[in-house]
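Need tokens for this chain, all 60 residues.
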Amino acid sequence: MDWVLHGGEDFGLLAAFPADAEVPEEFTVLGVATARGGRRSLVTVDGKTVTANAGFDHFS
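Here are the structure tokens for all 60 residues:
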């Protein structure tokens, strides 16, 4: 899971829609973005918190 979230150069197109928007049938809804207090972002996969210590570094 760490490699899937932080490594490699696989690309995908993601879009964010307002809650009341009609999502085009070509899109698949993956989840919901919610506001969160504090400075760190929180990513969950299947309800489990994913630690995001680093992202992919193209120059390493």
